[in-house]
Design a protein that fits this description.
This protein is α/β, with parallel strands linked by helices. The chain folds into two domains: 140 residues, HUPs (Rossmann fold, 3-Layer(aba) Sandwich); 121 residues, 3-Layer(aba) Sandwich (Rossmann fold). Helix content is 38%, strand content 19%. It has nine helices and ten strands. Strands 3-2-1-4-5-10-9-6-7-8 form a ten-stranded mixed β-sheet, sandwiched between helices. The longest helix is centred in the N-terminal third of the chain and has 17 residues. The protein is elongated, with a radius of gyration of 19 Å. The chain starts with 13 loop residues before the first strand and ends in a 5-residue tail after the last strand.
Length: 289
């Protein structure tokens, strides 16, 4: 079986920060600026899409209206945001701005490829039309389609140096689906303690392949000397967030393979059932296929 390791100095050089000019987006941008110091990021790109949004109503994304915004106004607002952030950047880092009327997901995919983006950062609020779009299919599409990892910053998050990371994983196709190189690079750039967590309930997902998948998991990660935890909880998402809180982790990483997992974390957060964990950012890596 192939093994993976980080053989060069890890770098997170290019960061793309999305904004809709809400206070939640501003908080995410401030978080990204602080994180840039820990990651030694060389450049931040601020991006705003002012496309007209028309979303079919669903229980999770009820927004059905639309709005129009001028390029001039968008450019003015994003320039003001740049001016607010530039003094807080690492000493040699740069900050660029972009705004246009492209579809948000398509624009992020394009920018990520053209600019070799290492990390995309966005916030959520539960209030704006942008966020309702984000909470719907756009978020999962972003995580699945964008070549860069996607960092979701909740409105209650204030940056703390990331010392402990919880990687919440399942035990399905571990070798095939885990983007090991990208994850190891990011964790090494942070210099953080790594905890690998699997949550199950009454062995519901235990099958003859489970032991084999556990072996693969260790082969992939043992070189990083992580802690491994296998816990029982009837609610996977709640179990992950409670565990991360107990370990005083500053970040949760996962590779979302289905919509239900993501929704179960953030839907509960927005309804305050997990309000005490809404300060904890979630980093989504695209599944290897």
């Amino acid at each position: 079986m192939e093994t993976f390791s980080v053989n060069k100095t890890p770098t997170i050089n290019e960061m793309l920060v999305l904004t809709d000019f809400s206070k939640e987006a501003a908080n995410a941008a401030a978080y990204a600026t602080a994180l840039a110091h820990q990651l030694n990021t060389r450049r931040l790109i601020l991006y705003h899409s002012y496309e007209s949004i028309a979303i079919p109503p669903t229980a999770f994304a009820p927004y059905t209206g639309g709005f129009a915004e001028s390029h001039k106004l968008s450019l003015q607002k994003i320039t003001e945001l740049k001016d607010e952030l530039k003094d807080w950047l690492p000493e040699k880092a740069e900050i660029d701005i972009r705004c246009d009327e492209r579809n948000l997901v398509n624009a992020v995919i394009s920018i990520a490829g053209e600019e070799h983006i290492d990390l995309v950062v966005m916030g959520i609020s539960g209030k704006s039309g942008f966020e309702r779009t984000l909470m719907g299919s756009n978020t999962i599409n972003m995580a699945h389609d964008t070549p860069a990892p996607l960092l979701i910053v909740p409105p209650g998050a204030s940056f703390q140096p990331i010392k402990t990371v919880v990687f919440a994983c399942d035990l399905k196709r571990v070798t095939e689906s885990t983007p090991v190189h990208a994850m190891k690079n990011f964790i090494a750039a942070l210099g953080a303690r790594l905890i690998i967590l699997n949550v199950d309930h009454d062995g519901a997902h235990f099958n003859p392949d489970t032991i084999k998948e556990m072996k693969y998991l260790h082969q992939l990660w043992d070189e990083q000397q992580p802690e491994y935890h296998y816990i029982d909880h009837e609610d996977m998402a709640k179990g992950i967030m409670e565990f991360a809180g107990q370990e005083r982790a500053e970040l949760v990483i996962t590779v979302p393979k289905q919509y239900g997992f993501f929704e179960s974390i953030f839907h509960r957060s927005m309804t305050k059932k997990l309000a005490y964990h809404t300060h904890l950012p979630l980093l989504l890596f695209k599944e290897d296929v």
